[in-house]
Specification:
The chain folds into two domains: 66 residues, Arc Repressor Mutant, subunit A (Orthogonal Bundle), CATH 1.10.10; 146 residues, GntR ligand-binding domain-like (Four Helix Bundle (Hemerythrin (Met), subunit A)). 69% of the residues lie in helices and 3% in strands. The protein contains nine helices and two strands. Strands 1-2 form a two-stranded antiparallel ribbon. α4 crosses α6, α4 packs antiparallel against α7 and α5 runs antiparallel to α8. The radius of gyration is 19 Å and the shape is globular.
Amino acid sequence: MPVPAKNSPITRPSMREEVYNTLLAWIMEGELRPGEKLLDKELAENMGVSRTPVREALRRLEDKSLVESSANRWTRVSEVSVKEPEMIYPIIWNLEELAVAQAMEYLTQADLKKMKDANTALGKALEEANPVKAYTADERFHDVYIQRSQNPHLVNILQDLKIKSRRVEVTYFKEYACAKYSLEEHCRIMNALMAKDLDLVRSLIRSNWQSSLKRLKDIECRVNFDETTN
């Protein structure tokens, strides 16, 4: 099992969370691929920790269906289906519509600035053709109003769903869904938020996710066409 490099040592006070977050990031960013076997001893040595926090992290990841195991035989990264975005995206945009409805009265100018800064970062990442930075910036944009919903249950559900969708995108698509069109879509969302037009905001959020799903389908079609013609 090739273990990604861990450049900074893990400190004891934050050991459990950092081990978990490190493994989660490796899975989300494709450093640990679907089907790859996970050896707690090797992971622990790489991170400079005991095997206990690694095992705890793997159990937490298994609870989220990101890791699967067979008793006393193997533990590995769960497989993902290329069709998952079609199932996940509609749930995400409906829950984001709910989140923004709950967030509307709490959003501040500082929140809108965070969204603008995230969109600027997205534009820069797209110019650099850096998909990891692009995904991160896109998530930061949406996360502002999700967090402002002040609904921890909704926040947690959306976070879990986006982990699953991100895995599919990283695993199967060399290109990425948050293309340059998202910049314009995000600007329209911010303008509607400033105008406090909730119906329009909800419609634009839905459209943003539907456009992203269409872009993924277009990428899939091109890949399938290339495979059949080669």
